From TrEMBL, chains A, B:
InterPro entries attached to this UniProt entry: Aminotransferase_I/II_large, Class-I_PLP-dep_aminotransf, PyrdxlP-dep_Trfase, PyrdxlP-dep_Trfase_major, PyrdxlP-dep_Trfase_small
Name of the molecule in the record: PLP-dependent aminotransferase family protein
A Pfam family of this chain: Aminotran_1_2
GO molecular function, one term: transaminase activity
UniProt cross-references to Gene3D superfamilies, sorted A to Z: Aspartate Aminotransferase, domain 1 (3.90.1150.10), Type I PLP-dependent aspartate aminotransferase-like (Major domain) (3.40.640.10)
Annotated PANTHER family: AMINOTRANSFERASE (PTHR42790), KYNURENINE_ALPHA-AMINOADIPATE AMINOTRANSFERASE, MITOCHONDRIAL (PTHR42790:SF19)
Cofactor(s), by name: pyridoxal 5'-phosphate
Annotated ranges, domain Aminotransferase class I/classII large: 41-384
Keywords for the protein's UniProt record, in alphabetical order: Aminotransferase, Pyridoxal phosphate, Transferase
Signal peptide region: none
Amino acid sequence: MNYSFAPLTKNYESSAVRDILAVIQQGNVISFAGGLPAEDIFPIDAVKSAYEKVFASGKGSLQYGATEGFKPLRDAIQEKMERKGIFTNPDKILVTTGSQQTIDLFSRVMLAPGDIVLTEDPTYLAALQVFRSYGASVVAVKGDEHGMNPEDLKAKIEQYKPKFVYVIPTFSNPDGKAWSAERRQQLLKLCYQFDVLVLEDDPYSDIQFHQDEVYHPIASYDKEQTHVLYTSTFSKSVVPALRTGWVTGPAEVLEMMTQAKQMNDLHSSSIDQQALYHLLCDFDLEAHIKLIRSVYYERMTMMKEYLNQVGPGLFSWKEPKGGMFIWVEGPKHIDTTVLLAEAVKKGVAFVPGAQFYVNEPKLNTFRINFSHSTPDKIKLGMDRLVDILTSVPVV
Amino acid sequence: MNYSFAPLTKNYESSAVRDILAVIQQGNVISFAGGLPAEDIFPIDAVKSAYEKVFASGKGSLQYGATEGFKPLRDAIQEKMERKGIFTNPDKILVTTGSQQTIDLFSRVMLAPGDIVLTEDPTYLAALQVFRSYGASVVAVKGDEHGMNPEDLKAKIEQYKPKFVYVIPTFSNPDGKAWSAERRQQLLKLCYQFDVLVLEDDPYSDIQFHQDEVYHPIASYDKEQTHVLYTSTFSKSVVPALRTGWVTGPAEVLEMMTQAKQMNDLHSSSIDQQALYHLLCDFDLEAHIKLIRSVYYERMTMMKEYLNQVGPGLFSWKEPKGGMFIWVEGPKHIDTTVLLAEAVKKGVAFVPGAQFYVNEPKLNTFRINFSHSTPDKIKLGMDRLVDILTSVPVV
């Protein structure tokens, strides 16, 4: 039979992330490709205790729940938001199956074919896939290490009248940069001026290496919650298997997203939501986040020292101030997709940077993840990677 | 700010299910409205043990998982499918966040504005909401207690060239009917003839009261898995809070749905999926399903006896052969939405039938759920309901 799919499926892109997972599963390959947190420090005992409390609370815990999410969890998220300078209330918090579902539900209620979304370049590729799957076109705004260029942002807002601007301002995926406070405020000011929404994707801000630096979420400047949808997740600070994220922002938008979520899956796992609530009550998550920071900083530093061996001038990178990734730019004549094939043969993997680009991809970039591999594996994998990088001919 | 939502959001319907949940939460109301399973027989000890096994399996259990679902769970689902006469393989099983997500993902990859979906009338209202949210129009096929009328189905396939036919052939929601084997085969034959897909929604077939009767899923007749997408869930046979369902069918359609799911939420909770796998290994689910059947049969019988008190001729219903609902039709002059307001005042709730209809709603119908309330509550609630029904004036 010839299956006649909806026309929008033509915009679905072959799944790079799944291809990456396939690489990971090859026996001897040490993968710096995926965006996986460190398994070896997962707080499994605390997670286990949290689930025990759910079952101890009785059979009612196993019944259907509300689409908006488990109310005590939303209360706890509100408190977490306050500590980030975002003042909201539980009625304006929707629990989602990870922040991926926020990106999807928000796109679903906002986007129609022909609409425009403005983004950074490079940016999170699975977000690009979602926007395009609804028929939207993505337009990249120029930027530098401090964030989007306000002049270009203004020009593109005026030219394209975008539905929203999508940004990861704190320890971006893939390039790890953190926006300056000034750029955050300039973006919001322009969005106020032209009435454009912002989708602020903030999975990594808890993983901050230098505590003397301060990064306020863009949403914290949007005091009345009129223009910014802020999404984050417990996948990085607790464990990914919980698949629990949330979104807060304008009530009217959240109401529409809640209707979409009801049609999409009724609600996210309520056992997981209840367990997460107990975990937030009983477990010192702030102490655990400190542990994550120090472990990731150590691993990032290890990787950095290996990269330093490659020699100056050939490959360049900026030391990330947080997050999970180092973004590397090589000499202009190389194609890191070709390099990856060679690397996998030698037992190490990274993600070629091309697919994160909206405009012309820089074929000479790649992303490595420093959170997932233990120091032993980092040594082994980085030895292999340095071998490959140093053998790249200087043209 | 004036939020400019996507045009398709105009098709979102105010959420009847959430309104129902709001009614349930009013203190003294005994609700026969929702479609909730019996909490008092939830296998909480088995569920608890299953989660313990997940945590005992190590920290890897808390990492990100595959979009398709946890492989050992898909293997177990394949065996379950075989027992229903559906021969598939784990590569053609996608785990979803309940069968609601199957309905949504399938609609997302198939439907564009202007497309037609054929359904029974009445049918599951949250499915109607999904189809319409993608801009499709729903056309009802005539039917009776044995299933869709094949002549009308053929005529409507020829007239409307539908994208698919949506059916709940075994203990339908809302009217509890079970299709005859003949009607199931006639539907599939027509779908083969005109190359139309079938979405077979089968959440209730395990809850079958009379074991001498046999209901083969329509998918079991689709030997090559070319035309039928079959979806079911563990929400009714285990517990709803797990939010775990699945879909099997044509590989090409599942591949597209998997891409959509990856954009939608990356994957469903893998802790829950692993727990469910352990539960299926260690717990006698078949024995538990037998318990569910006998408890639900007893409750249905209690309710039936109360309804018998209302007196012949005024209200009529068919005794369901399984599932969770009794569908009641009253005298033509009544409007059960008006009656509900009165019922809630007296402390009992049901769902007015109107919203389940595609064509002209029968305002004189309502649905009551027999699974959720304990015998004590059934007595109290049905006393109240019988009072209300017997006071309806005969015109």
